[in-house]
Amino acid sequence: MKKQYLIYADESHRKGKYFSNFYGGALVNYTELEKLSNKLNAKKEELGLHKEVKWTKVTEQYLNKYIDLINYFFEFVKSNKIKIRIMFRQNAQVPQNLTKEQKEKEYFLLYYQFIKHAFGIDYCNIKEKEQIVLKLYFDKLPDTKKKNKEFKGYIYALNDFFCNNNVHIYKEDIAEVDSKNHVILQCMDIILGAMNFKLNNMDKEKIPNSNKRGKRTIAKEKLYKNILKNIKIMYPNFNIGISTSSRGDYANNWKDSYRHWCFKSKNSIFDSSLTKKSK
User: Fold this and answer.
1) Vertex 225 angle, CA 224 and 230, to 5°
2) Cα–Cα distance between 145 and 151 in angstroms, integer?
3) Residues near 9 by Cβ (< 8 Å), separated by ≥ 6?
4) Fold of the 3-274 domain
5) In this prediction, what percent of the chain has a pLDDT beyond 70?
6) Measured distance CA(112)–CA(109) in Å, rounded
């Protein structure tokens, strides 16, 4: 039986105050998928979370349930049964000389880079000779059928990039899915949303005409802090706003169970007026 990996992928926020273009992914060994999903769904039921969980649904009332679920989810991350990758772009890194086509296709061009590089797939099979099949499940893509199909074509073309390590993608394994039916994708959405929330200072937002923060904002901040605590158990010096270090070995792009990637285009310039400090 060929070894198979599955990547769940989604995007969160295209334009934020300080950081934009958030993408997230969760990678699992396909043979473990059903077992992991069953355990996470059972945990949801135990906690009374009978519907889809997602970052936008976090409230004071459900905070402890979400914390318990995310703590359970991170047990699989810590044991490297689920790999999490988060990518985003800092607004202060301003790309130069973009063509009209590049601007129009920004969403899919960045998504493509995320799939190509974030998980270090090109390092997943260096010493092994067996063929690996890579499956990709995208949360429903938000564009036209034509543009979505074109994007999937680019993802399929990654075969040319991965084939040197005997990693293959089949057209039928590139699919759009509904997150309601995929608990791993739901849990990844919570982590992705939490990073966007913190990096864009949403934890500091006040109720209009007030000096107080809303209960939901406070609840989300507590959940974010719990997520960060879980990450720092694995990586004590973790910084959410920068790319995670490869620590002198690019193979760690694959080996690590959790990583961030602050995407920077080669032709970008740094505009300090767009940073948090300037505000």
Assistant:
1) 100
2) 10
3) 23, 24, 25, 111, 114, 115, 136, 137, 138, 139
4) Nucleotidyltransferase; domain 5 (3.30.420)
5) 99
6) 5
pLDDT tens digits, one per residue of 70-102 = 999 999 999 999 999 999 999 999 988 888 888
- Strands in 46-190 per DSSP E: 82-90, 93-95, 132-139, 167-168, 174-177
Is the distance from CB of 202 to CB of 26 less than 8 angstroms?
no
Q: Contact 242/89 with Cβ under 8 angstroms?
A: no
pTM (global) more than 0.85: yes
**What amino acid occupies position 45?**
E
Q: What is the pLDDT of residue 14?
A: 81
Question: Which of the pair, 175 or 130, is modelled with greater confidence?
Answer: 175
Q: CA–CA separation, 156 vs 176, rounded Å?
A: 14
Question: What pLDDT score was predicted for residue 97?
Answer: 80
CA 185, CA 158: separation in Å to the nearest integer? 22
How many residues are given for the chain?
A: 279
